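Bug report (template v2)

What were you trying to do?
Predict the complex of my protein with alpha-D-glucopyranose.

What happened?
Run completed; filing so the output is reviewed.

Input:
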Amino acid sequence: MSDNWWRDAVIYQVYPRSFADANGDGMGDLAGVRSRIGYLADLGVDALWLSPFYASPQHDAGYDVSDYRAIDPRFGTLDDFDAMLAEAHGAGIRIIVDLVPNHSSSEHEWFKAALASGPGSNERARYHFRDVDPARPEVPPNNWQSIFGGPAWTKTPDGKQWYLHLFDSSQPDLNWDNPEVHAEFESILRFWLDRGVDGFRIDVAHGMVKADGLPDTGGDGSIEMIGTTQAPFFDQDGVHEIYRRWRPVIEEYEGDRIFVAEAWTDSAERRALYLRPDELHQAFNFDLVLAPFAAADFRKAIDAEIANNAGVGAPCTWVLSNHDVQRHVTRYGDGELGLTRARGATQLLMALPGVVYVYQGEELGLGEVLDLPDEVREDPTFHRTGGEQIGRDGCRVPLPWKRDGLSLGFGEGGSWLPQPEDWSDKSVEAEDGEAGSTLEFYRTAIALRGENKATVLTWLEDPAEDTLAFDNGAVVNVTNFGDEPVSLAAFEGKEILLTSTDLQEGDLPAGSTIWFKR
Ligand code: GLC
């Protein structure tokens, strides 16, 4: 039986190390997530996606997994996981876990065995090893650069071979030409499906298959993942074969479980290929993460997503922020301007047909923390580029739950990244029940979205330049992307459901969204 919950859900991303810390070690954990299920139920979300909590040396905040079937002791135990899952299910909230199939940690048993066995061994065949050329011992097998900076190849300790890592040197890429890798990941899927998870977010879902012969990329070999185009290691057609094998596995399980892809592609057309009926259910649309706050850019991204996903029968999947990108409050401008626009954009998203992902802390109006001291930064991007790229720590600062106290209620042992002082006023305690707060705004927007489900998207005549107006079958949404208030005279007589900012003498302020009952 399928209720298709995932076609119009609001899904909340929990970044476990920064959500809530129950054991007071300064890092969030699964018991912390469990303790806040009530908060998430009040917010009205349908499901959680949890970033990795598996056993890991944490060289990339857990995206370097050393045991895919174990919980890292920093985050708890399998019992804590089961208890958290049960609590969430009891509150009607589904749980999506993160699966990291492109690479393991260098601490994974397989990689340790590969290093211990020699070149040409079955153990090495699970990864991408290549001989060092004695004539050119310092020249790696090709020109690929790590997404985090520096070469994508590192030598084995004996200096005889190179191994490939698209990310940090502690994240060797698995070889998806090897049937053992397929079998292992199908078994990992079943392990978590048997435990009752409702789905998987697939990390670097466009990366597992590499072009035959590992050819050089054009240029100097450096490829950005965010906003990338196709590359010999990204968005290769062969990757779809993997998902055609996984789909029947998940279909064996009851309860309408899903896959959501992190697939950075250069077009909505290529993204939709991952969403064909025998592949994945959702793929994050990152176009609005990359788009400036401008009507034309939003409209273009929305039209492309709707047209392409309709072609394969998949829901649109809208995102403004996550743990890898600068928070949208900060992307959209300084201070009040950024927050106003962020609320305006969020309300627009909530009116679109499809699925909306919310990144923890968005609902409090948190901005990027830009002034973290270098010594506390953990992101490998920062370290591998010698600080040239500041990295992603600024969107990963632990949540403020209370106005006061050590770590603003995150936990009793401080917080692994320092929180800005003004987060006291952005804490859950400060915003809870406070009319006009961003938290109350999110609660209302999510509730109204549920009561007024979008079925279509019909563009209406825009009331002014740099605005977008559309009808979604239940509400009329008007967003003002410009710098001046916009008259709403064209909608006179319509019932107002929600505004992201108080109206200014009846006009819609710059950066704001309004919903009218249709
Ligand atoms: C994904 C994750 C990111 C991680 C990378 C390598 O992009 O979202 O946080 O660093 O993959 O696993």
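What did the reviewer find?
The pocket of alpha-D-glucopyranose is lined by residues 60, 63, 100, 167, 203-204, 262, 323-324 (CB under 6 Å). The longest strand covers residues 94-99.
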